[in-house]
Amino acid sequence: MSAVSAISPARKAAFGILLAVERGKAHSDDILRGKRVSALAAPDRNLATTLVLGVLRWQIRLDEQLKGFLKRPGGKLDPEVRIALRLGAFQLLFLDRIPAHAAIDESVELAKQSGHRIAAGMVNAVLRKLSSDAGAGAAPPFQVLEEIPAELAKAQAHPAWMVERWCNFYGLEAVRAICRHGQTQPRLAMRVEDLAVEAELTQAGIQLEPGALLAAARTVLSGDVAAMAAVREDRARVQDEGSQLIAELASCAGENLDGKAKSILDACAAPGGKTLILAERNPQARIVACESSPQRLAALRRRLAAYAGRVECRFADARALQDESAFDLVLADVPCSGTGTLGRNPEIRHRLRLEDLPRQAERQRAILSAVLRAVRHGGHVVYSTCSLEPEENEQVVAAVLAENRNVRQVSFAPVIEALLGKSILKTDGAERLHKCLTPDGAMRLLPGVFPSDGFYVALIEKTA
Fold first, then answer.
1. Of all residues in the chain, what percent carry a pLDDT higher than 90?
2. What is the reported pLDDT for 1?
3. Which of 182, 258, 337, 401 is most solvent-facing, going by the fewest CB within 10 Å?
4. Are 351 and 293 in contact (CB under 8 A)?
């Protein structure tokens, strides 16, 4: 076994992040955007991100392949040993540019330095066998046709229960696209409304192309946008195009009143990207942005400081709102399972359990019921999630509508046309969105099938 005293900063950072995620102490996205990773040199930062997200995306498949080389496949491994094995296996199987000796030796050293010197020998032996098999061209155990849900789940490293239910809801072909989208890093999307700001980014070496739907959306092809002053100052914002679309739909739905909405509630506002769009599109409106986490509320206030004169950031749980008929428009982008964002948040597949969905739905029904009380007669509520699960989407809407006689669901079709008429939506974007409407007029964006994270959006009117 090679003795390596040093571990690269990228692998050391990735190991620490994966260990924190494994222990349920943090989310990978939060840590990867934190100070520890930001302090790394750009190559190390990029490698650390690739390692963390790659291991989390392929963890189910990595664990299955590693089992074949363990003396006791059913035995329990310490978290540090599991992470060291996964890191090494991911580099050997998925990163051709990484020398095998570096992947193996540093994984062994990670196990040693975390207090598992004896297990480090096992890590070395397992990874060398895996490397030898991979180098000899041995057929991996996951070369399958993906023609049944169980095969697809194995091949694309998703939980079988998740894939099976998606196939029942959306069909095998759509689910293949969903799963493959979940195994790749989505392209970064931005909101850039000022051509001068776009020119500033381009001159600084940021390569952009137009988004798929919205005139203000851009896709980042290359460049470090986080280092740009325009991004730090919120003159250009990193935001998924589907997320931008929800705020545009809500803002336009508010114009179905007598003129523009004068009072708007963003019921679950942090981190504030949608609130900013609402504020920009509705300069005449008073906006209340609610958040139930003190830390997230503080960050929200900082981000919305430029609009402090007409945007109130309120510490509030949306389930317990006391407002009665106080708002013309409400956006309820509710907390959810996040299964539409597995490309960006791969660890969700490891944490989520089927029995979690009823608990999520109970909270979502409570929020939707509360905001319906808060909207005035003739006003609108936009209910949205980044979930693919019907329990959190149409079933929530149906349950709440059944309990309220003075509300009705309305179609987004005229809203799409209105956004097209304002040149907010691109022509081909409008055509694509019409195809995403469900029979009751809600909008469902499936990742992989559609060029964004997965979202469900419903429009509800409070009748007089």
1. 85
2. 42
3. 258
4. no
Give the DSSP per-residue string, 366-422: HHHHHHHHHEEEEEEEEEEES---GGGTHHHHHHHHHH-TTEEEE-SHHHHHHHHHT
Domains 9-135 and 239-462 share a fold: no
**pLDDT, tens digit (0-9, with 9 covering 90-100), for 374-412:** 999 999 999 999 999 999 999 999 999 999 989 999 999
Q: Residue ranges of the alpha helices (H) in 148-254?
A: 149-155, 160-170, 172-182, 195-203, 229-232, 241-253
* Strands 455-462 vs 407-410: parallel, antiparallel or unpaired: antiparallel
**Model confidence band, residue 260 (pLDDT cutoffs 50, 70, 90):** confident
What rounded mean pLDDT belongs to the chain?
Answer: 93
Quick count: other Cβ atoms within 10 Å of Cβ 422? 13
Q: Which amino acid is at 47?
A: L
Q: How many other C-beta atoms can be found within 10 angstroms of the C-beta atom of residue 219? A: 17
Domain borders along the chain are 9-135, 150-182, 189-237, 239-462
Q: How far is CA 19 from CA 83, 266, 373, 389, in A?
A: 7, 35, 44, 28
Q: What is the CATH number of domain 239-462?
A: 3.40.50.150
CATH superfamily entry for domain 9-135:
NusB-like (1.10.940.10)
8 A C-beta contact, residue 100 and residue 130: no
Q: Which of 152-156, 255-259, 404-408 has the lowest mean pLDDT?
A: 255-259
Reading the block at residue 35, the tokens are 């100070």
Greatest alpha-carbon span in the chain:
77
- What's the per-residue H, E or C state across 249-264? HHHHHHHHCCCCCCEE
Q: How do residues 17-67 score in pLDDT, each as one tens digit?
A: 999 999 987 888 888 888 888 899 989 999 999 999 999 999 999 999 999
Is beta strand 286-291 parallel, antiparallel or unpaired with respect to 263-266? parallel
Q: What is the CA radius of gyration of the chain?
A: 24
The answer to whether 84 and 111 have CB atoms below 8 angstroms apart is: yes
For the segment 164-177, the average pLDDT, to the nearest whole number, is 96
- Stretch (H or E) spanning 453: none
Distance CA 27, CA 347 (A): 8
